[in-house]
Amino acid sequence: MNPQPDSYSTGPRVLLLPGAWMGSWIWEPIAETLRSRGLGAQAVTLAGLEPDAAAGQRAAVRLADHVDQVSILAAHGSPVVLVAHSYSGMVAAQVADRLGDQVRSTIHFQSFLPVDGLSLIDLWGPDGGARAQERADIIADGCLWAAPPAAALDAEPGLSADDRSCLAGRFTPHPGRTVLDQASLEQPVDSQHGVFVTRSRAQLPAALVGAADWRIEILPGGHWPMLEHPGEVTELIGDHTAAVDSLL
């Protein structure tokens, strides 16, 4: 069961959404610190990412199922700030598009941002050939997106040996249909309000270049900033949530 926001908290709730192959555990240390500061923070495990989920159960989950799941959590209670990492940017931005002002802001850590009519895999990789191969591999694996091998984590110099061991041991196959399904948006992402955290401006998504209502933050390092820079990540989320709260 996902931990619930503390009942005494005030202001927007914070929902922390994990990237591919991970559950709420990746965000829970950050959520716990935020809760200790009086924020209603909840780390979420998306459907099909439960550690004991059967392969068929994982493979059946669609992108729309994740959007529905988070929409229900976000719509219940006070307004929310959605925090996304990597894959879950596809979910958070669609929820914000659906719920309007109920989502006060989003914070994206190296997220994929949805484009109406395109899937995550359509936005993935260096070229069309790589995208086609990744799509074929997912389908061949029974609509499961295989987690990166442990050796791939060696290329992440900001991770400690314990971090690498934890990730490799806890990764689960990701529901493949969620990255093959097309996103559905009423308005483009650049019309939303949010913070995008990237390793460098060269990696800023094209959709946000020149976007007036987005704040861009540079946080050098690898792909798991919540492990590499937990203090900075916590401060950024807490400070931005407080700033949003002051506008309520």
From TrEMBL:
Residues 14-234 form the AB hydrolase-1 domain. It holds the Pfam family Abhydrolase_6. SUPFAM superfamilies: alpha/beta-Hydrolases. InterPro entries: AB_hydrolase_1, AB_hydrolase_fold, Sec-Metab_Biosynth_Hydrolase. It comes from the Bacteria. The keyword GTP-binding does not apply. This is Alpha/beta hydrolase.
